[in-house]
């Protein structure tokens, strides 16, 4: 780490600033209720949702082939057919997908304490939101949680040539803010993208949000710092700057 003070902080969005996983679970619960009450599905409702969850986790999206709405509706269509058999039911798949999506977006909110933290941090450093993912999906989340006003810039991986952990998206982010990689800290919950990317780009520091006390694999990238909540960040940044003052 260099001897300059932190000038900018890059934040991941999903499961760092907003509880995407929790919102998604709430969406699945609403679909289970729908399938059980309106369509008389029993345990199949949960099986279908579990299958969709697996498909989402393995999702490969290529914008040239189809839009994200068609792809994700197909996840539901396949899961229903795999579980129930018979002919494909696109109409039911669409109903499930849009209920899951709308419920999920309703629960994607910035907590008041996170808003307060971002507001205070921005008085001292520049803030950038750096999120991987398909353009439409991520822009809808950004709109839903109304986080635009807390950042100097927002960069969505799906709008760039490369996503995290490629160094290019970090250099692009630095250019947007008029800072050098050695001035910046990356904060995120994913070792393979957020932390590896920050290391690849030579950022001043990487901060891993490890909410559940997960033990990483030995092959995983090693973050400079580990915290259990994003709310621990201001104190950590202060300690990083204090080290700079002492070294100087």
Describe the structure.
The chain is α/β, with parallel strands linked by helices. It contains nine helices and six strands; from the N terminus they run E-H-H-H-H-H-E-H-E-H-E-H-E-E-H. A six-stranded parallel β-sheet has the order 3-2-1-4-5-6, with helices on both faces. Helix 1 packs antiparallel against helix 2, helix 1 packs across helix 4 (90-106) and helix 3 (68-84) packs across helix 4 (90-106). The chain is elongated. The model has no long low-confidence stretch (mean pLDDT 95).
Compact summary:
By secondary structure, the protein is α/β, with parallel strands linked by helices. The chain is built from nine helices and six strands, in the order E-H-H-H-H-H-E-H-E-H-E-H-E-E-H. Strands 3-2-1-4-5-6 form a six-stranded parallel β-sheet, with helices on both faces.
Task: Give the SSE map.
Layout: E1 8-11, H1 20-38, H2 43-57, H3 68-84, H4 90-106, H5 112-121, E2 126-131, H6 135-145, E3 153-156, H7 167-177, E4 184-188, H8 191-200, E5 205-209, E6 225-227, H9 233-247
Organism: Rangifer tarandus platyrhynchus
Protein name: N-acetylneuraminic acid phosphatase
Keywords: Hydrolase, Magnesium
Based on the model shown, name its key terms.
HAD-SF_hydro_IA; alpha/beta; 6-stranded parallel sheet; 248 residues; magnesium; N-acetylneuraminic acid phosphatase; HAD-SF_hydro_IA_CTE7; hydrolase; 6 strands; elongated
């Amino acid at each position: 780490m260099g001897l300059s003070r932190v000038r900018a902080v890059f934040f991941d969005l999903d499961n760092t600033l907003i509880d995407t996983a929790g919102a998604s679970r709430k969406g699945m619960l609403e679909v289970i209720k729908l399938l059980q009450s309106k369509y008389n599905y029993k345990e199949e409702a949960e099986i279908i949702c579990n299958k969709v969850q697996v498909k989402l986790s393995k999702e490969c999206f290529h914008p040239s082939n189809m839009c994200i709405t068609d792809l994700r509706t197909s996840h539901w269509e396949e899961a229903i057919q795999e579980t129930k058999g018979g002919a494909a039911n696109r109409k039911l798949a669409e109903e499930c997908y849009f209920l899951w999506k709308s419920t999920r977006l309703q629960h994607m909110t910035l907590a008041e304490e996170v808003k307060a933290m971002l507001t205070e941090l921005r008085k001292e450093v520049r803030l950038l939101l750096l999120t991987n993912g398909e353009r439409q999906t991520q822009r809808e989340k950004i709109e839903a949680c109304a986080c635009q006003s807390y950042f100097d810039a927002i960069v969505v991986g799906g709008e760039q040539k490369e996503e995290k952990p490629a160094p290019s998206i970090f250099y692009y982010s630095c250019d947007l803010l008029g800072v050098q990689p050695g001035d910046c800290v990356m904060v995120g919950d994913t070792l393979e993208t957020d932390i590896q990317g920050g290391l690849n780009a030579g950022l001043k520091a990487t901060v891993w949000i490890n909410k559940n006390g997960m033990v990483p694999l030995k092959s995983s990238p090693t973050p400079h710092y580990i915290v259990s909540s994003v709310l621990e960040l201001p104190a950590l940044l202060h300690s990083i700057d204090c080290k700079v003052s002492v070294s100087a």
